[in-house]
Amino acid sequence: MEFAQKIRRIPVYPVAGGYDLGAEMAMLASNESPFAPLEPVIEAARRGLLGANRYPDPSYAPLREALAQRYGLPAERIALGTGSCELILAAGDALLEPGAEVVYAWPAFSVYPHLAAASGARAIEVPLTAQGVHDLDAIAAEITVATRLVLICNPNNPTSTALPLEAIAAFLERVPAHVCVILDEAYVEFSLTVGDPYASLPLLERFPNLVILRTFSKVYGLAALRVGYGLCGADSFRIAVDQVRQPFYLTSAAQAAAVEALRHQDEVERRVVATVAARTQISEALRERGLWVAESDANFLWVRVAQDGDDARVVSALRERGVLVRGGSALGGPGHIRVTLGTREQNEKLLDALAQVC
After folding, report:
1. pLDDT band at residue 5, thresholds of 50, 70 and 90?
2. CATH: 3.40.190.10, 3.30.420.40, 1.10.260.40, 3.40.640.10. Which one for 39-261?
3. Which ranges of 104-196 does DSSP label H, i.e. alpha helix?
4. Is the pTM of this model over 0.85?
5. Whole-angstrom Cα distance, residue 261 to residue 227?
6. Are the CB atoms for 300 and 161 separated by under 8 Å?
């Protein structure tokens, strides 16, 4: 079989080192929540399965309305997807083509390079600062008449760092109206720099070309159900990404679970508090051992473990000791590891294992 040239251009997504490795393995590689879904959320998903002989509601009205009420936006300005990742890919399909440009920082979310590779557009990757932070001045300098899309990951994956919204707003003032800016806030609930999840919403009223991406995969602990959403400055983005995708992209069970999850913000807040406390504790412990750790605003840490760039050795040694983490080489940062914050027992296991390795 002869495949399209783009198949040779699209990079393989760097998945974690394994799944279903047993209860003894501390799974700290994929930025998932260590907390299982609440029973009411599981029950809502079960009820959603009862009508599995029928296609899901293609309007996704209950979930759109629930999100509209939470964020005070019109439902028609809320885009949905099977994870925020799918919305990013759909944005590339809707916005990019040969001759167009997409600009993003690097290293950042591993899906971003797929957009230019799949569309034939030109990718412009702008290096992060030495602290692992977006250089917004350098990104703004790369925007031209050919630019269609700019991606800002805040907090950034894999480096865990975040910029204050004042800096984001000042950057948006410099972006021409023809350019779509996606502010990827998959980890915003964990960010002390950004503030609360409502903090960035006023930007949508000022900048119609802005889309803020969020997900149920992280703080809500629904990674396996794949539900993401975009809060849009204008409904044109939602209309365009819906045009380029198959219908019925969200299952009934996933929609029902997401709607129910939104009703339990107190439990979400408790889990955020526990994660931020663990983040502080583990970061301080690693710095006391002489390791460089980025200033994290997410539910994971970015740690320099090998001056020679050989993070694979550390990843392998940790796995032998029952701890699965992600190597930085596959994420654009050789010599680093990305470590998801887990349960107390998992975090202690990580520290013990790192003490033996680094």
Report:
1. confident
2. 3.40.640.10
3. 112-119, 136-141, 165-173
4. yes
5. 11
6. no
